[in-house]
Amino acid sequence: MHMTAVRDDKCRIAFAELFTHFAPRIKGFLMKSGADATLAEECAQDVMATVWHKSAQFDAARASVATWVFTIARNRRIDMMRRQRRVEPDDLPWGPEAEPDQTDVIVLQQETDALTRALKTLPLEQRNLIEQAYFSELTQSQIARITGLPLGTIKSRIRLALDRLRHAMN
Amino acid sequence: MTIHHHLEEHSLLAYAAGSLPEAFNLIVAAHVSLCDQCRATVLAGETLGGAVMDDIDAVPMRSDSLAHVLDSLSAPPSATRPAARAPIPAGPTVLPRPVQDYVGGDLDAVKWRHVGMGVKQAVLPTSKQATARLLSIPAGGKMPEHSHVGTEMTLVLQGAFHDAEGYFARGDIDVADQNVTHTPVADAGADCICLIVTEAPLRFQKWLPRMVQRLVRI
Prior knowledge:
The complex is a heterodimer of chains A (about 170) and B (about 220).
Chain A: H1 2-9, H2 12-32, H3 37-53, H4 65-81, H5 102-121, H6 124-135, H7 140-147, H8 151-169
Helix pairs in contact in A: 1-2, 2-3, 3-4, 5-8, 6-8
Chain B: H1 9-17, H2 22-34, H3 36-54, H4 65-72, H5 97-103, E1 113-116, E2 119-124, E3 131-137, E4 146-147, E5 152-158, E6 160-163, E7 166-169, E8 173-176, E9 185-186, E10 192-198, E11 203-204, H6 210-215
Antiparallel strand pairs in B: 1-2, 2-3, 3-10, 4-11, 5-8, 5-10, 6-7, 6-9
């Protein structure tokens, strides 16, 4: 498990493998969100450095590595591109366990993989809407104004896409 | 505490995606601190974000980027000005942690300003696209009648109120889009303290003259 190797053994080989997989995706994500290549490169490096420094906070029972890396990239994007604070909810009373239940971890990874596969099967229009929600600086009201769609339609399309995703996963 | 009024899924998704203005981030984070159901929805939204990012067209990093990062790892993390968290007060608290971070403590740290008829407010420092304020309405009192542009969200932190939409107690969130003019009435028995976020400044209608509105930064 790469994150365990990074956290417990400060293993640079494991980290390099994480870097090779995630850094180009983080860079692509930030560029789709409007960053130029230089800023995206800088942010992606910074996100991966955070993955190293905050490895103790990763909770495999609560999120996959991809999910956790996404939240770091998202927060960095908010900080650097939007210049506002990301506000996190109150921490859960229990932190990550040193040895999470392996069944929990495996099930979560399987469900996350299923979600990724289901995302690929969405009709293009719904897929675009979901991606816009994640790449875009736009609020849903703004998306509604630009696409000419009433906000209610967007909400129900996203709900439909989410329901289909859940359905595809089950 | 049973929460009956939750955030809509699209708001939680937008929060997970990081696309909300700061003041809305704050009220969502505050509600999620109190509501496991919505916290789960946020986690699902983050999982979806992970899937979206994982599936994206990757853009190659510079050839020296890995070496550069590996070199930097022995140094302490770069100073990314982490938001200063308020010291954790002893004992049970009224304000969820994210709100405490903006206030600098729990309820007793709030710098209230009186706006008339026993109502107090405190505007919290967030980015300009939306406004977040704490509002305190005396037990049995009415929230000043107002209209608003865009979306308005009201999270109850203490006491309760009822309006045309129903009854709202601690943890409940009342979402109103524009064109809704509502007059919540606080329950008798306790002052009702809410966190209210609007996309644009509130327009108080009746009892507060426009000049005074400017003074209290409405």
